[in-house]
Structure formats: structure tokens, C-alpha cells
Amino acid sequence: VTTPTAAQPQTLDELLVPELERSFGLALHLTGERAEAEDLVQDAALAACRGFGTFKQGTRFRPWFLTILTNCFYARYRRARREGTRVDVDDAMDLYLYERTAELGWHDGSADPAERLLGRLESHHVQAAVRDLPEEFRVVAVLGLIEDLSYAEIADVVGVPIGTVRSRLHRGRKLIQRRLWQTAVDAGLVPGTRREEG
Amino acid sequence: MDRLTCAEVFERLNDYLDRELSAEEMERVREHLDTCVVCASEYAFEARVLEHVKDKLRRIDLPPALIERIRATLSDPRSRRSD
């Protein structure tokens, strides 16, 4: 019986296939379209195939592949960047949802006010909030939220300074909070709105 | 080492959530949260929101056909050409 050791090189198939589900999720949040996401993952797999010689066996495969996938995303959308989706980033307050739910008195007695709000929102609401982020915020937010990468790892993948990652990640999260609140208001999911259910 | 004020903890809240502070700074924030109800409430809320957002973003199923497309790409010798 042969026992696998760290010294044995792994094939791209062995390394990549277990990563596909999360990679597709990442691609879907970056592109916002399932067909586009499939094509992006396919592009990244092909690029990984061609560049596999540069992968250092024994190092973490995931960041290496994420760098490729992110670069493929930038290459595909370089000409198609949507300038019309810009939002006023400075307009998003800190603790946006905390302040809004505090105004409703949800922090006075509710054991879990975040659950009370977020539990009413569906996955597609959150996915839409991420999809609508400006691209530079969306890429960093997705890498942080889906991949749980550190600031330094995101900086390596995206190719920007750590301080820029930190700023974009925090501001992106504020924008997501603001968008989620607006979604909850529009859907009448919080008291004092169209279809009061509070 | 001086205890952190509420304002100083607020400045560090996102980095604390992301576990990006030094071990010493993490401990200083933790000490403050243990003794300040308001900051602890803000932190708990932000942490739960983040948890919900991550959970909802991760509910994505991989299309079975994509696995087959990728496997075909990986097994195709032409895929290894760089031209």
C-alpha cells in the first residue's frame, strides 16, 4: 500500500475539482450571471492548465487559483466595466443596520436583532447587494466574504496594497448593509414600511 | 497598558471582526468588550450580520454540467498549450 506523502506532486485535477463549487460561487458573485460564471470558471481552469508549471507543489493551491480566476474576471470584463453602477460610498454610515434596528427598539429586548432582520432576507437579496457593489469593492468583498482570506492574501490575489484591501472590504460591507436595509424596507419586512410585519 | 476607550474600540471593530489585529490588540479589544455593554452589543450585532451574509452568499450549487466541462478541459492535451 502506497501512503501519499507531501513530496508526491498532486495533479491539477486532484487540486482543482474539490475547489470548483466554491469557485463557481465566487464567479457567480463577481459576474452576477450563472452562464457568465460558468464561462469564467472554465476560462480560469484553462488558464490554470496552461500555467500549472508555475504552481509550487506543497504551497496552497487555493490562493494560486483565485489569482488566476480574478485575473480572468478582469480580462473578461475589462472592456465591459459598468460605469453606471457607481454608488455614493461615503454615504454609508458605520454600523448602518445596527443604527436602523436600534431606531426600531430592537436592541432593547430582542435577544438577536440581527437574526430578526437578516432572517427575513433571502439569499438572493444578499447576493443582489453584493452584485450591485462597484467592481473594485465587489472583488475584495467577495474574496473576504466567500473565501475568508486575510487582508494580505486578498492583497496578493488582487494585486493592491493591504491598506486598500482593508478600506474596500470595510466600505463594501457598509454598502451591503445599506442595500440590505433598503431591500428590507422596500419589501415591507421591517415595521413602519409598506407591508408592516414587525 | 492603558485600557481602550469606546472610541478606540469602535475604530478597531472591523479589524477585530476580521481577526486582523495583533494578538495584543485583540486581547485589549476583548477586555473592553467584556466590560462595556454598548460596545459588546455593537460587536455581537456586526458579527451576526457578517455570519448571515456569509452564509447566504455561500448557498450556491455547482452546475453538474460545469464539472464535466472542466474535466474535459483538464484531460484535453490541447489545454496545456499556451498558444
Q: What labels describe this entry?
A:
heterodimer; A: about 200 residues; mainly alpha; about 65% helix; about 0% strand; elongated; disordered C terminus; B: about 80 residues; 4 helices
Description:
The complex is a heterodimer of chains A (198) and B (83). The relative contact order of chain A is 0.11. With 198 residues, chain A is mainly α. In chain A, helix 4 packs across helix 10. The C terminus of chain A is likely disordered. Chain A is 63% helix and 0% strand. The N and C termini of chain A lie far apart (63 Å). Chain A is elongated. Chain B has 83 residues and is mainly alpha-helical. Chain B has four helices and no strands. Chain B starts with 5 loop residues before the first helix and ends in an 8-residue tail after the last helix. The model of chain B has no long low-confidence stretch (mean pLDDT 91). At the A-B interface, helix 1, helix 2, helix 3, helix 5 and helix 7 of A face helix 1, helix 3 and helix 4 of B.
Overall geometric form of chain B: elongated
* Class derived from helix and strand content of chain B: mainly alpha
| Number of DSSP helical runs of chain B | 4
On the 0-100 scale, what is the average pLDDT of chain B? 91
pLDDT < 50 runs, ≥5 residues of chain B: none
In short:
The complex is a heterodimer of chains A (198) and B (83). Chain A is mostly helical and 198 residues long.
Describe the SSE topology.
The complex is a heterodimer of chains A (198) and B (83).
Chain A lengths: L11 H5 L3 H12 L2 H18 L9 H17 L18 H8 L2 H4 L3 H6 L4 H9 L3 H13 L3 H8 L3 H25 L12
Helix pairs in contact in A: 2-3, 2-9, 3-4, 4-10, 8-11, 9-11, 10-11
Chain B lengths: L5 H12 L5 H13 L1 H21 L6 H12 L8
